[in-house]
Design goal:
Elements (H helix, E strand, L loop, with lengths): L1 E7 L2 E7 L4 E6 L12 H14 L16 H10 L8 E2 H7 L6 H9 L12 E2 L12 H11 L8
Parallel strand pairs: 4-5
Antiparallel strand pairs: 1-2, 2-3
Helix pairs in contact: 3-4
Length: about 160
């Protein structure tokens, strides 16, 4: 397992990887000392995140290897289908995975997403259009959604 800490517009970000791919991207709650990427995969992840923050990247192409249950993996895969600039409700994600009664379970899987930003759990909002919980904090969720906002922004 290798890791690095990079800067972002709203604080430090920890990136972790193993031989299969990125295992975690976490928004840290406090500023910490930066640690440069040492592996090719970490360097590529850092580069793609930097380009995302600059507005030059909308689709990530780094390999991912998040640990989770089969259900969590299914939800996280559905989250990756939410287009840049769009938002979905928890109900829409439950419907997308073919389990419309699993709204709360989708919310729990969403909250356990270990790969922030790349698996865009920040794009999931309440059915009423309001921002709901986000592990990195609602201020960061609002920042990310504002960053991705485009003319004609859509919902799922």
């Amino acid at each position: 397992m290798t890791e690095c800490i990079i800067p972002s517009p709203f604080g430090s970000i920890l990136i972790c990887a193993n031989s299969q791919g990125i295992t975690a991207i976490r928004l840290l709650s406090s500023e910490v000392a930066l640690a440069s990427p040492t592996s090719a995969l970490l360097k590529e992840a850092a580069k793609q995140l930097e380009n995302y923050f600059l507005g030059a990247l909308q689709h990530f192409s780094i390999p991912l290897a998040p640990a989770g249950t089969a259900f969590q993996q299914q939800v996280w895969q559905a989250l990756r289908q939410i287009p840049f600039g769009a938002t979905c409700s928890y109900q829409q994600i439950a419907n997308a995975i073919g389990n419309p009664k699993a709204v709360r379970a989708v919310g729990m899987a969403n909250s356990r997403n270990p790969v922030a930003i790349v698996i865009p759990c920040h794009r999931v909002i309440g059915a009423n259009g309001q921002l709901t919980g986000y592990a990195g904090g609602l201020d960061k969720k609002a920042w990310l959604l504002q960053h991705e906002q485009q003319p004609g922004q859509t919902r799922c």
